[in-house]
Amino acid sequence: MLRERVRRGLSAGIIAAAATAGAVAGFGVRRGAPAEPFTNAGRLFLGIAATEDGTRQLGAFAIGVLLHVGAALVWGVAFALLAARLRGARLLVAALLFAGAVYVLRERLPELLRVGHGGRAFPPQLVVLHVVLGLALAAGIRLAPQQGERTGATPRQRELEYLQRDPPEGGIEE
Questions:
Q1: For residue 163, is it within any domain?
Q2: For position 37, what pLDDT does the model report?
Q3: pLDDT value, residue 138
Q4: Which residues in the chain come in under a pLDDT of 70?
Q5: 30 falls within a domain
Q6: Is 166 within the bounds of a domain?
Q7: Number of domains forming the structure of the chain
Q8: Alpha carbons 135 and 24: distance in angstroms, whole number
Q9: How far is it, in rounded angstroms, from Cα 123 to Cα 58?
Q10: Considering only CA atoms, which of 6, 19, 21 is closest in space to residue 64?
Q11: How far is 8 from 14, CA to CA, in rounded Å?
Q12: With CB atoms counted within 10 Å of each terminal CB, which end of the chain scores lower, N or C?
C-alpha cells in the first residue's frame, strides 16, 4: 500500500515538475532569460557567482533543474500519501488545498523545497505557480497507473477498466 502510494506520488511529482518548470521558465522569458530561475537556484546551492565562466553556469543550471525536479517529487509523494485514493472533484479540491498550503508555508520551508526557488517571481506569479502545482498533482495522481493495471492498454481500455472497478454514482452511461 505504501509502496503504491509512493510510486503514484513519484508519477505525480514528475508531471508537477514538468508543469511548474514550464511556468518558472515562462517567468524567466519575461526577462529574456528562461533558464535564469534554474541557474539562480543552482548558483545559490553551489555558491557560484554570476560572473564565473560558462561551464560553471551550465553546471549551476543543471543543478537548479535537478533541485526543481527533486522538490516537485517530494511534493508529489507527500500529496500521494495524503490523497492517492481520492477521485474527481475531491481530488482536484484536495490538490488545490495542498498547493495552497505549500504556498502559505513557503517562507517557513527550507529553500530547497520551494517550488520555483531561484526565480524572481512576484506574489501573483507565485500564486499561479502553486495553482499549476495543484493541477499537475491532481493530474499526476489521476494518470498514474494503479497496481495491477495492464501496460499497453489504450486510454479507452484503461477508462473502461477504471469505470468497472470504481463506477460513478448513478451507474455507467452507454
A1: no
A2: 87
A3: 94
A4: 118-120, 146-152, 170-174
A5: yes
A6: no
A7: 1
A8: 15
A9: 28
A10: 21
A11: 10
A12: C
